[in-house]
Amino acid sequence: MKKSREELNAEINIRAWKDPQFKDLLIKDPNAAFAQMGKNVPKNVKIYIHEETENTTHFVLHKAPVNAKNMSESELKKIAAAAGATYRENICATEEPRG
Description:
Elements: H1 5-18, H2 20-28, H3 30-36, H4 73-86
Helix pairs in contact: 1-2, 2-3
C-alpha cells in the first residue's frame, strides 16, 4: 500500500528518534537510509534532511506551478496549501515491499 508524504515523514521521524545510527545515516546519506527502509529513490532525486531544534525551523519552497504567473492569488493559495501534503509524493517508491 502506498504511503502519503505525511505517513512517510512520521515513519522516518519515529525511526530516527528510536535509532541514533539510523538518524546519523539519514542525515549523512538520506538515499541510503531510504534504501534501508525499503524505499527506492531514483538516482536523479536528491533528498535533503534538516533537523529542527528548539531554536530552528525549516520551510519548503515548492516548485512553482507551470502557469503560476497567470493564476489568481486564490488559486495559488489552494495549490500552496495542498503542496505540503501532496507535492512530489511519487518521488519515492513508498509502497511496502511485497513478500
